[in-house]
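Predict structure. Chain length: 219.
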Amino acid sequence: MSKSEEAWHAAAPTVTRWWWIRHAPVFGGASRLYGQEDLDCDVSDTPRYEALASRLPDDAVWIVTNLVRTHQTAGAIWSAAGSEQNPTVEPELAEQFFGDWQGLTWSQMEERDADTYAQFWQDPSGNAPPGGESFAAVIDRTSQAVDRLTQQFAGRDIVCVAHGGSIRGAVSQALGLHHERGLSLTIDNLSLTRLDHIEGGTLNGAGQSWRVVGVNTVV
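Prediction complete.
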């Protein structure tokens, strides 16, 4: 290796690669705002898990949230890959907490308190449901957790099985999106989102720290 090549390698930034997967569809969650309800999910679609497993890196750090559907989804991927992992459990990457509205349909929310419901829709990404948290707050807590875990596992591949809200939060952090724009992102069940953190910046030590490789890729 020449001196110039040695200098380039010595100066190469640390890249931490996040592989985000939204959990499998939950049972009984259709048309309801289930949020942080701890519901089981459907892991019967074996070909989907085999396809996901084939796309993921070996020797990755695995992270799940405190909700069982992320554990079940991760377990289905490991089974498809013929492997077993010991994941880190990170509650700060859980789904948005919808407070008094959790488990309800939109029509039920309006029936309970039409005034509160109408006020919420004045700013649905910035306002919190009664007793819950706003999507803006989800971005804040997700960003803090991502920063901490990126520092803890710097230079590694991180596979994180999480939720639509927290993955939207991570993409919003990476792109510097206002919470209203972040809420417009589509994150499907079992989709793959890839975000790379480049220490020092993406443009040879300048620019933003995040590189967006792909969002909501359906495998």
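Summary: The chain has one domain: 16-218.
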